[in-house]
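Researcher: I'd like a structural prediction for the single chain below. Treat it as a standalone chain; there are no partners to consider.
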Amino acid sequence: MNLLTVEIKIPKYRKIDLKILTDYSVVVFYVNDIVAFSTRMFNMKKHQWGIFSVNSDISYHDMKISI
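Model: Treating it as a single chain, here is the predicted structure.
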């Protein structure tokens, strides 16, 4: 499987505004209203998924989920 990665340079301790919109199998991630990533997630409607970071420390604050 080939994975596509895109590096986003964000200064240390800077807040990131991440918006995630889903519509059935289409998912779009907006980062600070500057960068958008889209993907397809087939058969994910009733399955769990998550957000993670590679080689960095992160913390989550003020998370809001709207359905």
